[in-house]
Amino acid sequence: MNMTVWDWFEQRSFSHREFSGLAGSAEATRSPVVTLVLPAREVAGTIGPILDTVASLNDRSGLVDQVLVIDADSADGTADIARAHGAEVYSENELLPEYGPAQGKGDAMWRALSVARGDIVMFADADTRDFGEHFLYGTLPKVTRTREMIDRIKPGCGLEVDGGVDAKTAPQAVAAGADVLVAGSAVFNDGESVTAAMKRLRAAIEPALALERVAWVLSNHDFPRLAARVGERQLRDAASLLLSLPGPAFVYQGDEIGLGDGPGADPPFDRAGRDRHRHPMQWDATPKGGFTTGDPWLPPIDPAKRTVEAQRGDPGSLLEHYRRLIERRQALGHALRFLDRGPGTLAFTRDGEEVVIDTRD
Fold first, then answer.
1. Helix, coil or strand: residue 183
2. Would you list the domain boundaries of the chain?
3. Per the count of CB atoms within 10 A, which of 92, 127, 308, 352 is most buried?
């Protein structure tokens, strides 16, 4: 496909101003039932104004039919404030408790689906201080378009995201009719070997694959970096696993060069203490890592040690390993069958082509 990055963005980007008409009369916006989900943690200072904004928009347009606040048992009165402003409030831990305590925002989001009544579900941050109506009427058309796109690809297909698929949740989500599963960052536990993870993950992978619509992610900005969780020696194995499974795969920028956690900020920018996982990409060995000419909120971690510039073209580098895997996956078929190759070895076939990940020293 002869398309530049800018062409891609131009065709898939829009301004909320294009949809300002949705903020008008209820007659103009009467359509599918819409649920707004606000995952919340210690946001007493912002949740009230946000809900007031939603209510003001609804008074004119009736755009949102259900407003859910999924609270992380905040100690600052977030839940009480949300109830006083007319929202339905649930503790993230009371929803689907059979899956254990919630483990972050992703958990709150997918658990919200158990009480959402909308045909369309959209999410917004509950800690935004300049929240405007356009956050809602600018998002809804994009959600609608996404739903229409999915329906064209697979008639009757909906969208359900599971932020923490594991051996327990995946089979039950599949049985409940989930249309898309996203295997979350929790698939690798701290210090866990790839072999141990695979034993636990196989029970989640196999039923998810039966859907023929599953995506994979091993790392994101809400969890410790992959290097911090599996160790540098297993980064290649983790990449081989991620990029050899069928379906879309997400790579958190920096994982491809082995970027680890950093010191974060003091005082922190993120109230949940996740700054350590969010240090910028290191493109070159300059003090700012080639990330910016300005002053980044968080500094590069070790640009003198690892960068894109240093690893590019080096066949033994982690970056080139990722590139080879990405190129190879285009030729892999969809079907997957696990093979038994003994302890320390992960093996499966993809339409006859065997993929072997040997984790032994």
1. strand
2. 17-149, 154-333
3. 92
